[in-house]
Amino acid sequence: MQKIVILLLIIICSQTILSAQQKDTYIKAGFLYNSEQNVLLKNKVIHVKGNKIVSIGTYSTIPNGAEIIDLTAYTVLPGLIDAHTHVLFSQDASEDFSEHSIHSLTMESDAVRTLRGAKRAKSYLDVGITSVKDLGNSGLFLDVALRDAINEGTIEGPRIFASGPIMAATGGQIYGVSPKHQNLIDLEYRIINGVEDAKIAVREHVNQNVNVIKICADNIPNNTHLSIDEMKSIVQTADSYGLSVVAHSITNQSAWNAIQAGVDGIEHGFKLADSTLTLMAEKKVFLVPTENSRAYMEIYGKLAGYDNDDLDWIESYLVRMRNRLTRAIQKGVTIVAGSDNYTDIGSTRGASSRDMFRAYFEAGMKPLDILQSATYISALSLNKENEIGVIKSDAKADIIAVKGNITTDFIDTIEQVVFVMKDGKVYLSNLN
Q1: In the 8-state DSSP scheme, what is residue 79?
Q2: pLDDT reading at 14 higher than 50
Q3: Element spanning 301, H or E
Q4: Which of 98, 160, 154, 167 is nearest to 130 (CA)?
Q5: Residue 289 DSSP SS3
Q6: Which of 223, 268, 350, 385 is most buried, with most CB under 10 Å away?
Q7: Strand, coil or helix: 294
Q8: In sequence order, what DSSP letters do the residues of 1-25 get, joined into one string?
C-alpha cells in the first residue's frame, strides 16, 4: 500500500511540474510581422503554451487573470535565422585561412574549440537570432555535439542545423599542406574519392545525425573540385535520407555544375552569371549571398593591415556584390539570409552576424523582404517553415521584439532587440 501511495505522489508531482512548464502566456504585440505574407499586422496577441504557439488573436481574446507580456510598444518578429554560420571557427582579419586552420587542428583541443563555440553560440540569442545553419569548419562533428548540448539545455544558444564536415575534393579548402601531412585535412573535411565514396560519406553523416549536407563545388584556392557525378551521388543519397544539400561556390562554373547535380542551394555565389541565375530560378535553387556592409569591410580592411589609402578595393567589392544581389532578385532567385561572418572584428559573433541585415539593406533590398529572407524563407529552405521563422499556431515559440519603425528606420530598429524568447523561454527582456 505504501508503494502505491508513493507512486501516486510521484505521478501527481510530475503532472504538477509538467503543468508549470506548460503554462499559458499571452504576448501583446503593437505590430506583429507575418513572415509568410510579408506584412505587418497591428494589435495582435500571441498565445504561448510551453514551447509552442497556440494561436494568434486580438487583445479581446486574453482571458482574465492571464500572464501577459506587454510588447505593445514594439514590433514583434519571429526569431531570426542566420543560414550560414561557422560557430566553431574564428580567425583574425590579418590571418591566413589555411595557416589558421592548421594551427587550430594541431594546437586546439576539441574541448577548447567547443567551449569557445558555446560562448559564441550564446551571443546569437543576444541579437535575436534564434536559429542558425552551421556549415562546417567544425572538426569531426563538433557542431552536432554543440547542437545537442543546446537542445538538452546544457548550454544556451540558438537552434543549430548542423552539417558536420564539409564534403570536398582532394585537399579541401586548406592549401599548401605537404604530402606527408594531408591527413590533417581529414580532421576538418570529408574528402570524396569517387561516386561510391560519395554515397558512403553521406551515410556516415546520416549516422552522426546531421541536419543538412554541405559540399564544396570548388576548392579555391586549391585547384581541385568535385565532379558532377560525385555531386549527383551525394545529392541522390542525401535525398533518400530526407536531407538537403547546399554547395559552397565561388566560381560561376562550379555553381552551374552543382545546380546540374541537383543541389538545393548555392552558398556565396560571388561570380554568378545571368544564365546561372536564370537556371537557379527555373530549378528553384536558393541563394545565400554572404554580403558584408561598408562599415564591416572598412573595419576588416584596417584590422587586416591595409592603410587608408589602400582601401579603394572595398568600393569595387561592394558594387560587385550589390550588382550580383540585384540581378539575382530580378531573375526571381529565392534569397536566404546568411552572414558567413567568422572573422573577429572586435564584436560578439552574434553582433557580427547581424551585419548581414545592414549589408542587404545597403545593397537595395527592402526591409520586409530582408526580414522574410531571414525568417520564413530561411525556414522554408530548411524544410521547417511550419516550426520556425513564423508566428502561427503549432510553431515553436521563437519570438523577438524590436524597438523602432522597422519599415522607415530598418537598421536602427533591427539592432534594437529588446525581447528574445526561444522555445518559450525568455532569454532577454529589456523593456522600458
Answers
A1: P
A2: no
A3: helix 294-303
A4: 160
A5: coil
A6: 350
A7: helix
A8: -HHHHHHHHHHHHHHHHHHHHT-EE
Q: Where are the alpha helices (DSSP H) in 78-185?
A: 97-107, 110-126, 142-151
The closest alpha carbon to 136, from 61, 211, 63, 195, belongs to 211
CA end-to-end distance (rounded Å), the chain: 55
Which neighbouring-strand residues pair with 25? 48, 67
Taking the C-alpha atoms of residue 286 and residue 277, their distance in angstroms, rounded to an integer, is: 10
- Closest-CA residue to 74 (of 36, 38, 46, 37): 46
pLDDT in tens, 118-154: 999 999 999 999 999 999 999 999 999 999 999 999 9
Instruction: Tell me which residue has cell 528574445.
Output: 420
Q: Which residues pair with 71 in a beta bridge?
A: 29
The greatest distance separating any two alpha carbons of the chain, rounded to the nearest whole angstrom, comes to 86
Distance CA 138, CA 88 (A): 5
- CA nearest neighbour of 361 among 321, 399, 391, 316: 321
Do 126 and 350 meet the contact criterion of CB atoms below 8 Å apart?
yes
What is the rounded distance in angstroms from the CA atom of residue 95 to the CA atom of residue 112?
20
Q: Which residues touch 301 (CB under 8 Å, ≥6 apart)?
A: 310, 311, 314
Beta bridge partners of 70: 28
- The confidence score (pLDDT) of residue 4 equals 53
Those residues with Cβ within 8 angstroms of residue 266's Cβ, 6 or more apart along the chain or in another chain? 246, 247, 249, 255, 258, 259, 272, 280, 285, 286, 287, 288
Q: Classify residue 401 as exposed, middle or buried by CB count within 10 Å of its CB (0-12, 13-18, 19+).
A: buried
Give the single-character DSSP code of 61. Answer: G
The cell numbers describing 320, all together, are: 560587385
pTM, full prediction = 0.93
What are 112's three cell numbers?
A: 577548447
Q: Are 62 and 68 in contact (CB under 8 A)?
A: yes
Rounded Cα–Cα distance for residues 191 and 128 (Å) = 35
10 pLDDT tier (thresholds 50, 70, 90) = very low
Give the Cα separation of 290 and 400 in Å (integer).
23
By residue count, the chain amounts to 432
Specify the 3-state DSSP secondary structure of 193.
coil
